[in-house]
Amino acid sequence: QKEVEQDPGPLSVPEGAIVSLNCTYSNSAFQYFMWYRQYSRKGPELLMYTYSSGNKEDGRFTAQVDKSSKYISLFIRDSQPSDSATYLCAMIISSNTGKLIFGQGTTLQVKP
Amino acid sequence: NAGVTQTPKFQVLKTGQSMTLQCAQDMNHNSMYWYRQDPGMGLRLIYYSASEGTTDKGEVPNGYNVSRLNKREFSLRLESAAPSQTSVYFCASSDRGEAFFGQGTRLTVV
Asked: Averaged over B5-33, what is the pLDDT?
């Protein structure tokens, strides 16, 4: 079993829809949780970074962490065609050292 | 500010050949990583280095070696390339878990 599980999709939504992306994990020692966005043929870029359980909002993006259920989510409001990309969740045990582990990534297409 | 620089961007190798992928970062980060990305597999960790002078295996280390030459540089070596190592390779450096990636190396082994 992989440490981090993410549905690869693809996920296709109309412009303006609310998008929900999710990851589950098995190691309760993970402390820091991230979402990265990757456009085709580019390296991933950090989108959201959270430490504790709860919600963190940044513009149209909301990251949610539920440590008790070992479940994290990324919500995108008012989705735009420019949001079409692959979204990868990632997590790490320690902020200073240790393995940074990624999910498989979910491919999102937002249709105009 | 260059961030993370990988070389080369593209490479074609014959089975059995060796090569080294170079990575350098100018952000003074302690942690550096090498990942491979294959369709449907996400980013899989090959090796990582938590600090200068230390390296540790990730999920898929077989067939690879690494060197953390100094704080800036972290290289990945394929001693005897195999077709199964055809992939896109990403180097990353990290500060408190916030990773910054290079542009990737597209490697084909024929």
From this structure: 96
